[in-house]
Amino acid sequence: MDCLFCNIASGKIGAELLHEDPHTVAFKDIQPQAPVHILVIPKKHYPNILETDSQEIKHIFDAIKKIAKEQNLDDGFRVVNNCGELGGQTINHLHFHILGKRQLKWPPG
């Protein structure tokens, strides 16, 4: 399997890591949709949220909380997960987007 995010998590492909712990890594999105746009991924490969478990999700959200504080996102931010092709997932490795530092409208756009 040749997964882009697995290669980033293992260090085979370089990325500007903003966070790393035993379970997760986080790095800047290369096509940011907001002034702060960070991807948080598990180090272990899961194709999407349907293939993981609650303990792994807890590790990811613990990382998201830490990153949000470090990025001074106290005034608000959005966490997004796209699941499957119809949900807009383009890389088949579970990941969450942290978007912040601008007014985020609903619906997005």
UniProtKB/TrEMBL annotation:
<dbReference type="InterPro" id="IPR001310">
    <property type="entry name" value="Histidine_triad_HIT"/>
</dbReference>
<dbReference type="InterPro" id="IPR019808">
    <property type="entry name" value="Histidine_triad_CS"/>
</dbReference>
<protein>
    <submittedName>
        <fullName>Histidine triad nucleotide-binding protein</fullName>
    </submittedName>
</protein>
<dbReference type="InterPro" id="IPR011146">
    <property type="entry name" value="HIT-like"/>
</dbReference>
<feature type="domain" description="HIT">
    <location>
        <begin position="4"/>
        <end position="109"/>
    </location>
</feature>
<dbReference type="Pfam" id="PF01230">
    <property type="entry name" value="HIT"/>
</dbReference>
<feature type="short sequence motif" description="Histidine triad motif">
    <location>
        <begin position="93"/>
        <end position="97"/>
    </location>
</feature>
<feature type="active site" description="Tele-AMP-histidine intermediate">
    <location>
        <position position="95"/>
    </location>
</feature>
<dbReference type="GO" id="GO:0003824">
    <property type="term" value="F:catalytic activity"/>
</dbReference>
<dbReference type="InterPro" id="IPR036265">
    <property type="entry name" value="HIT-like_sf"/>
</dbReference>
